[in-house]
Write a structure and sequence with these properties.
Layout (H helix, E strand, L loop, with lengths): L21 E5 L6 E9 L5 E9 L6 E9 L4 E5 L1
Antiparallel strand pairs: 1-4, 2-3, 4-5
């Protein structure tokens, strides 16, 4: 999300891994802060979600990588 609008939405099929890495292109419409929302649905139907805010600075049109989202520690880290 950027500036209150959904900029990109995607479904990623992930096997039974505890982590998954994905990338997206940071664009001007996401600045100054991109809000990334990730979620999954457990086998029992419970929805588990997390968010992270990414401050975008400098020239845009750069890829952003997110990794280390884990249900065990319920945190998500980011790398630019």
């Amino acid at each position: 999300m950027g500036r209150g609008d959904v900029i990109m939405a995607n479904t990623i099929q992930v096997s039974n891994n505890k982590t998954h890495k994905f990338r997206f292109l940071a664009t001007y419409v996401m600045a100054p802060t991109a809000h990334v929302v990730v979620f999954y649905v457990k086998d029992d139907g419970e929805v588990v979600a997390d968010t992270i805010d990414i401050e975008l600075q400098g020239p845009l049109q750069n890829f952003v990588s997110l990794c280390n989202f884990s249900a065990d520690n319920k945190t998500m880290s980011k790398r630019k």
